Amino acid sequence: MVKGANHIFFDVNNANITVNAGSGTPDTVAPTAPTLAASGTTSTTTNLSWSGATDNVGVTGYDVYQGASLIGSSASTTYTVTGLTPSTTYSFSVKAKDAAGNASVSSNTVSVTTLGGGTVTYCSSSASNTADERIGNVKFGTINNTSTGTAGYENFTSVSTNVTRGSAYTISVTPVWTSTVYSEAYAVYIDYNGDGDFTDSGELAWSKAGSTTTPVTGSITIPATATLGSTRMRVMMKYSSIPTSSCEAYTYGQVEDYTLNIVSSGKGELSNTKDLITDIKLYPNPVRDILYVSNTASEEYKIFDMGGKLVDSGKLQRGSVNVGNLIKGAYTIQVGESSKRFIKN
Predict the structure, then answer these.
(1) Which structural domains are found in the chain, ordered by start?
(2) Residue 244 carries which DSSP code?
(3) For position 304, what pLDDT does the model report?
(4) Rounded to whole angstroms, what are the CA distances from 169 to 99, 162, 200, 217, 292?
């Protein structure tokens, strides 16, 4: 230090300056390895699922490998592999990762053999008489098909709509009578796993007992486990009583087939290496107590743990949510239709 008149100067050339970078200990602990299983294998797809790995801070996601190649990532404990070749054996494994970039050792390896290729063939179903009643219109998703045909079976598989796993859709069927109004019953079948039949559990998607109501409406929810890709929906109208099966041949009424394209919701399930796509903004992240959410018009929120379990829900309070009661770890907050991960300290 050099003294002068009314001034004090420091000799910085000889000073030892130390910057304290903090006393926090870096996270170097990797998550535990997941346990992997495969199910629902078709000619071109398979569904992977695994037990949730654990971590000292929190698992933030999983990397999925086909052989030694990384083919995608998921924020939940499921992943659907698409684009496979029929009659081919593949091996898959999964690694868990945390916010610090630590990755677990590989899970067990599972091998799957895809089904043989070829066009899926469905059973026939038809009414033999449409002179008195038939289907006039079907609405489902973006399908709004008015039929002028009078055959007992109409193939409208060129008419299609996208439907999302886990979402509910209204089915509307309008009957047409030539003169006398008869009681009509209905059944809608959807081949959710794409195996060429409508006999699996839940594939009778909707039915309605006989009535003279026009149009008739109901709600169909696409299962979260439905196989991604194109599949068939069969709409049946029968005089007086509900069709007994998707392959029934009966006298009065009509049968129509349509195509559904089942797509992923994108929530906790990704078909490529991109993370959850979202427009909402979170701060601070990591957070201790109050999490602020911006860039959203919605107030309804849901918070899920990394196993996909709902742990909290409600309405934002002035653009924020108190997460102080959550245990330390990684979570996903969904606001409206947007989702984003955050770390609770």
Answers:
(1) 1-118 (2.60.40.10), 126-263 (2.60.40.3880), 281-344 (2.60.40.10)
(2) S
(3) 74
(4) 37, 11, 20, 10, 33
| Residues 6+ away with beta carbon under 8 Å from 44 | 82, 83, 84, 85, 86, 114, 229
Mean pLDDT is lowest, of 74-78, 186-190, 264-268, 305-309, for: 264-268
Tokens 């947007």 sit at which residue? 338
* 62-70 long-range Cβ contacts below 8 angstroms, 24+ apart: 62/34, 62/94, 62/95, 62/96, 62/97, 63/94, 63/95, 63/97, 63/103, 64/92, 64/93, 64/94, 65/92, 65/93, 65/94, 65/95, 65/106, 66/90, 66/91, 66/92, 67/91, 70/273
Q: Name the nearest CA neighbour of 80 among 213, 229, 201, 280.
A: 229
Q: Which residues pair with 333 in a beta bridge?
A: 303, 340
DSSP-assigned letters across all residues of 25-93: PP--PPPPPP-EEEE---SS-EEEEEPPP--SS-EEEEEEEETTEEEEEESSSEEEE-SPPTT-EEEEE
Is cis: bond before 215, omega within 30 of 0?
yes
Residue closest to 44 by CA, chosen among 113, 122, 111: 113
Q: Select from 158, 154, 192 the least CA-distant residue to 173.
A: 154
Task: Indicate whether 299 pLDDT > 70.
Answer: yes
Listed in sequence order, the residues at least 6 apart from 14 whose beta carbon sits closer than 8 Å to its beta carbon are: none
Which tokens sit at 60?
Answer: 């933030």
Residue 302: which H helix or E strand, with range? Answer: strand 300-305
State both tokens at 23: 């006393």
The pTM (predicted TM-score) of the whole model is: 0.49
